[in-house]
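Database export, one record per block. Field names are fixed; values are copied verbatim from the stored entry.
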Amino acid sequence: MSFYKIISRHIPELKLKLGQARLRDDPEQYIKKTTMTAVFLTSALLIIIFAFIKKANIFLLFPLIFFFSFFYFLRYVDVKIERIKKNINQEIIFAGRFLIIELESGVPIYNAFVNLGRSYEVIGSYFNEVVEKVNLGTTMEEALNEIIALSPSAELRKLLWQLLNSMRTGADVADSLNAVIEQIVRQQQIAVKDYGRKLNPLAMFYMMMAVIVPSLGTTVLIVIATFIGFTLPLSFLIILACLVGFMQFMFYAIIKSARPPMEL
């Protein structure tokens, strides 16, 4: 048994995650790619560091850097899933209403799936897969079940489950979808309100830590250095500017990650 297979067996949820991330690799291949990437990155970092400090014992850090690099790249599948989930949740309401209009207009559900697949890039790819499976001989119910299992978005799973249940029970699909879409809209409205409440303290903290404190602190530092006759080196000011820029970037990343995954 290979090293990569042993590791993949210790991460049983990896196969499902790869499917939800729409990656074609199996768990063993993904572990192999992750390992090789971590090895190359670790080697490159150590060679660069060695070029500056000229100490061979720096290579003793290889296991430590490799360990962190491996688990960092291993989380790529989770990042990909979150990105797909956000993209789905941005389209879910519009795609759901599009599907309702199609069905209420008398369009057969198969043709409605085809039209939705052409109109929406992210959600459309899931409905295109349903159409492809049906064309290959899979029943509509089985195709929907397979797509539900691979959907990273709870909202899309809810929509597809409602479609599936309505088809099984013979209920009106459009009415059932309307109820689901209204529920998703209410959930997104609550998320927007929560985002607004989080944004105010974040904006205040950003103004204090990333704007006021660095600008006033730098001014006071220059004034004090002038009075005591100390010359601030250019390298110090460049490092300070880089730290302020990094801090502002981190605040931007925090605010962006807190933003609800929908079109506001």
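Remark 1: The chain has eleven helices and no strands.
Remark 2: The first helix runs from residue 3 to 9.
End of record.
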